[in-house]
């Protein structure tokens, strides 16, 4: 068993770490001061454009697109594809996860990454030219509209919004919420998921469609922006969006009517690796900050590190991060070698483990920092909020646990 990263991954790790240290981490304070100074909250801080241009020039751009997806692109002349394996990209996602602003700098932020993967795998040549190319070049951003306020959306078959084909048009109706990224000034398109087959007796995973909806289509309205622990996460934001008799050509449906669930499944595997490795990166940064603080700050005549159970807390944080990272890398390796279906349990396991480990480690770092930990002078409070929401976003912990248990019990049930 070889735990070393490939030479390709190692070379990107070195380049990305250097870029983060030289450009991204020092720009964080500038970014947030520009964001908060802005008269309108929904603007992109100018420093972001500068960082993106530098990252592109350094060849650290669109690193997330895995090799198999790269090969499946059928649109002519698409540029900006790298083609790393999931195992090679995973450590890069971890490095990006150390900073709130880094994923966008490298055009590797959710939900654009998932949406681009959908377009790479399932988009028509026309859809790829119109939407994928500007997403790949970072000119526009996108959102993903699946969750609904009126139904328990951890069970996607509860969905009520509709995408009905009428002649050569598809007509959308319904309300979505927690559509991340929809507040971004460059958000031009959303992927909307709705019911196309209203017959309740039809096979439940063949009734839905995914539709590309330009933001300026009549009938699309952002009703309000939602806040997360009191913060609106500008300039991305999470919106509640209504779709009222939104009419689009049928060519806006991705891969054809009724294939929504198939696409949703296809979108899941790599996206979970990205989320989990990013949150592990946040946990690693929290541990680093916690250790620095613990050895420098003194109370009751001793460094904080030597007081009470603090050294155990630090040791346990290291153990938990290592476990979460190794499991996530294993899941990435399995996606590359045996595919998403065979890696279903591991993918569900990491989605439970990584955000919980990160939440615990960041919480402990906040404690060691005292009051400073909950303020805005360190990234800890924002990282904590992000780890906490990741226990809900992309499916609550409980749904992933039920998947793991179902797979674990399957052979025993089959043998009855
Ligand atoms: C910050 C943030 C960003 C998001 N971004 C997006 C986005 O971009 N696009 C999008 O479409 N959605 C997004 N979401 C929505 C997210 O995916 C949903 O919130 C999630 O799927 C859960 O759906 P729900 O909120 O309707 O919870 P519900 O389905 O109502 O579930 C509530 C609770 O019920 C319990 N529960 C549910 N199922 C089970 C089970 N099988 N076993 C045991 N207990 C269970 C769990 O405790 C669960 O937390 C985002 C959410 C957040 C918080």
Summarize this, please?
Helix content is 50%, strand content 15%. It has helices at residues 7-37, 46-57, 67-72, 86-96, 102-105, 112-122, 125-136, 260-296, 310-337, 344-369, 380-389, 397-414, and strands at residues 141-145, 162-166, 169-180, 187-195, 208-214, 220-226, 238-249, 298-299, 302-303. The strands form three sheets. The protein has a four-stranded antiparallel sheet, with no helix packed on it. The protein has a three-stranded mixed sheet with strand order 1-4-5, with helices on one face.
Relevant terms:
416 residues, alpha+beta, Butyryl-Coa Dehydrogenase, subunit A, domain 1, Butyryl-CoA Dehydrogenase, subunit A, domain 2, Butyryl-CoA Dehydrogenase, subunit A, domain 3, four-stranded antiparallel sheet, three-stranded mixed sheet, binds flavin-adenine dinucleotide
Topology (SSEs and partners):
Blueprint: H1 7-37, H2 46-57, H3 67-72, H4 86-96, H5 102-105, H6 112-122, H7 125-136, E1 141-145, E2 162-166, E3 169-180, E4 187-195, E5 208-214, E6 220-226, E7 238-249, H8 260-296, E8 298-299, E9 302-303, H9 310-337, H10 344-369, H11 380-389, H12 397-414
Parallel strand pairs: 1-4
Antiparallel strand pairs: 2-3, 3-7, 4-5, 6-7, 8-9
Helix pairs in contact: 1-2, 1-4, 4-8, 4-9, 6-7, 6-8, 8-9, 8-10, 8-11, 9-10, 10-11, 10-12
The structure holds flavin-adenine dinucleotide (FAD).
Flavin-adenine dinucleotide binds at residues 111, 144-147, 152-154, 178-180, 228, 238, 389, 392-396, 398-399, 402.
